[in-house]
Amino acid sequence: MNEAVFPKPAAEAVERPAPQPPLGLLAELTHRCPLRCTYCSNPLELDTRSSELDTETWKRVFTEAAELGVIHVHLSGGEPTARKDIVELTRHAAEVGLYTNLITSGIGVSEAQLDALFEAGCDHIQLSMQGADAGVTEQVAGYKGGFEKKEAFARAVVARDFPLTLNAVIHRMNIHQVPDMIDKAVAFGAKRLEIAHTQYYGWALKNRAQLMPAREDVDRTIGEVESARERLKGTLVIDAVFPDYYAKYPKLCNGGWGARTLSVTPAGKALPCHAAETIEHLEFWSVRDHSLAEIWASSPAFEAYRGTAWMKEPCRSCERRHVDYGGCRCQALALTGDPANADPACVKSDFHERLGEIATTEASTVADPGAATYRGFRKR
Ligand code: SF4
Ligand code: SF4
Fold first, then answer.
1. Does residue 140 line the site of ligand 1, with CB under 6 A?
2. Record: fold of 22-239
3. What letter does residue 238 receive in the DSSP assignment?
């Protein structure tokens, strides 16, 4: 870096701040899942059951998280209820004072298991929604009968007077169903619906050509969400995240790298974001070898892109560098080849125009769901 051309910002202390305590922990308890969603953001190389952390290690991680200042733990995967110890883990997380959010497909969770989870202290349920009917749900998730099971699960949660959030990841296969998904969320009794356009990591990146929506469809959903928000005030809260590929500026990713949250993979690697393993040169510490506090304070992977000192131009001198912290490192790597580049969703990125071309080209190809690759463990 040429310091004469890109002078160092004066406030070095601000550029590399000491980390504040994290607020959230994404605990990916397992990569096992009955569904095979084409948009899944799990890595292509899934952690096997034999590599998963055991019960006692997860309990230690939850205790350390609470001591570190974490408020929310998201019990996720894969399908977290595929673990036999899910109730025990939930109970422990609640006992050490964490707010527990179970992120589930709802498939294979019995009413008795649901009761046990609530009794153990589960605070909130977030249910994935792949479509508004059986056909689209099956096409997206590669699982027959999924929609009916999800509906039954949603109704069982609400019948217990429990807060339910539905999470619908939107892409070309289901974008036409956004109004129907909103109606279903109301019919199921959910209090909140997240309409989140696909982030292209893992299986979603592999299937991007089948998933990329057209610009006009995205614009239409913005209007649909806005009018539904107005109509459903007091009944349903709708959060919406729209796609990066048609954006002007990137999103603040995970509250900033190593700033607010951390993820732990089923095998125990601690990551600054759940897709960070795609940045292969980073050194990830494992919770098997280090405490969460050590990892948060000193792990090389967390230090790599913390603050703004690592930035190159155009981010380095940009007035928005403390707003979005250069966007997503994983997207910068996937689309520009260098994780230290500005996220190409940014208009100031040299790759931004190319990003728009990719989106337009892929969205205009004839959708062929049969060409999508369903998520699954690699055959060995
Ligand atoms: S996105 Fe689908 S396949 Fe991936 S973990 Fe969630 S429910 Fe399972
Ligand atoms: S140049 Fe970098 S910091 Fe500025 S808006 Fe773009 S991505 Fe954000």
1. no
2. TIM Barrel (3.20.20)
3. E
Judge contact between 299 and 285, C-beta under 8 A.
Answer: yes
- Beta bridge partners of residue 211, listed in sequence order: none
- For ligand 2, whether the C-beta of 311 sits within 6 Å is no
Domain ranges of the chain: 22-239, 307-365
Ligand found nearest the CA of 207? 1
Instruction: Write down the pTM of the prediction.
Output: 0.91
The answer to whether residues 193 and 236 touch, using CB atoms and an 8 Å cutoff, is: yes
Count the residues in the chain. 380
Angle subtended by helix axes 146-159 and 111-120, to nearest 10:
40
**Ligand 2 near 320 CB (within 6 A):** yes
| Residue-wise pLDDT tens digits, 307-350 | 999 999 999 999 999 999 999 999 999 889 999 999 999 999 99
Ligand 1, atom 7, residue with closest C-alpha = 105
Question: What is the token pair recorded at 190?
Answer: 């959910």
Using CB atoms within 10 Å of the CB of residue 158, give its burial: 0 to 12 exposed, 13 to 18 middle, 19+ buried.
middle
Owner of token pair 């469809």: 217
